[in-house]
Amino acid sequence: MERISRRQLVLLGAGYMFDATLISLPSQMIETAHQDAWMGYPIALVVVIGAMWLFIQTVKRFPEQNLLEALTERIPRLGRVIITLGMLFYFMIFVRDLRMVVDFINIALLPRTPLYVIGLLILLSIVPFVRSGIEVLARVNFLFFAVLVLAVLTIPLMTLKEFNPEEFKPVLEEGLIPGLKSAWLAFPYLGEVLVLPFLFSTRRLSFKTSVTACLLGTGLLLLLIVLNITVVGVEISSRFTYPNHELIRQIRLTDFLDRFDLIIVSIWLPAVICKIGLSLYILSSGIHQILPRVTRQLLVAPLGFLGLACSFAFFHNAIEPTHLTYVWPIVTLFYFVVVPALLYLFVHPKKKAMSK
User: Fold this and answer.
1) Which of 33, 138, 260, 267 suits a disulfide with 178, CB 3.0-4.6 Å?
2) All domains of the chain in start order, with CATH
3) Cα 172 from chain centroid?
4) What is the pTM of this model?
5) For residue 354, what pLDDT is reported?
6) Helix (H), strand (E), coil (C) string for 44-101
7) Structure confidence by residue, pLDDT tens digits, 266-310
8) CB count, 10 Å around CB of 114?
9) Over 70: is that where the pLDDT of 27 sits?
10) What's the rounded Cα separation, in Å, for the pair 28 and 100?
11) SS3 sequence, 1-53?
């Protein structure tokens, strides 16, 4: 049995929520809600925690199983249909994140390197530890995401001179509507943490652990968007594709260390690769539940290369993945609101199992 500690679970969930969300979402939230964009994260978090509670309560009825196993055992046919829909959803997340990271590396770091070469190198680094299992993935994520958290927490100290709280004013200039619009954009990204009940039973994953992961991931995102508003400014942040990268570029430690962003990016890249790896793991695990004769390890590489091909087929430039943000909330309402409610209401153990 794979051994994963509570701390590893917390960082795994927080990393899955945080790592790819920080790429371009803050720019769209600030463009939509201006100085009130930061309100979107707390509002969206309330809905995500509610959906997480529904999932955890459902999984509690099957103490030895995660949600994938419970669905295929309790309602075999309908359960496989639900899992198939869920795998299509997380496949799209895998494709989107992979393309966004490839484009970021190409634009910010390696402008002369072909996109497919960058994508291929990312896949070659992901496939081996995803094949090794969730325990290895959790340990690798624990190492890199912990360092990333410490790096993010140092950014306010390094940008203290540029901090301007006047950028928050006027608060609620247009009422609560801009904040709600911002929450509408943030909800799909925060809701990605709902992947945890599909991978872990309640013997390892408690509601408290899930909420801690949500709070950590959302807290880091909230810190960064506040810094974008107060340090870079509303007008400038809304025009950048990668506002957090521009925020870090404002840091000047000494006369000779003026590219501090390279240090932060070198810490962030392994963490976001772990996030993409977890998406690939849930895909292989879900298909294995649908087709038990096909081993999970055998599925990892084909799914990875299929996702890489689809990332170039679905998105033709670096802007198209960011435009998906405006449509994505409509899709996620089904997966993050309707599905948790239906499973909570209708998925129960058989009477014999309950009596035992």
Assistant:
1) 33
2) 8-347 (1.20.1740.10)
3) 28
4) 0.93
5) 47
6) HHHHHHHHHHHHHHHHHCCCCCCHHHHHHHHCHHHHHHHHHHHHHHHHHHHHHHHHHH
7) 999 999 999 999 999 999 999 999 998 999 999 999 999 999 999
8) 10
9) yes
10) 15
11) CCCCCHHHHHHHHHHHHHCCCCCCHHHHHHHHHHHHHHHHHHHHHHHHHHHHH
Cβ atoms of residues 8 and 142 within 8 Å:
yes
Of 251, 194, 253, 183, nearest in space to 221 by CA? 183
Residue 248: the pLDDT is 86
Name, in order, each residue with C-beta under 8 angstroms of 267's C-beta and a sequence gap of 6 or more: 144, 147, 148, 151
DSSP string, 165-226: GGGGPSTTTTTTHHHHHHHHHHHHHHGGGGGHHHH--TTT--HHHHHHHHHHHHHHHHHHHH
In angstroms, how far is CA 275 from the centroid of its own chain? 7
Residue 210, token pair as written in the block: 């899930």
241 secondary structure, DSSP code: S
Across the range 13-27, mean pLDDT stands at 91
| DSSP assignment of 114-147 | -HHHHHHHHHHHHHHHHHT-HHHHHHHHHHHHHH
Burial of 154 (0-12, 13-18, 19+ CB in 10 A): exposed
Two structure tokens written together for 217: 């991931």
* Mean pLDDT to the nearest integer, 122-151: 92
Distance CA 166, CA 160 (A): 14
Structure confidence by residue, pLDDT tens digits, 119-132: 999 999 999 989 98
Residue 163 backbone phi and psi in degrees, to 5: -65, 125
Which position has the token pair 């249909």? 81
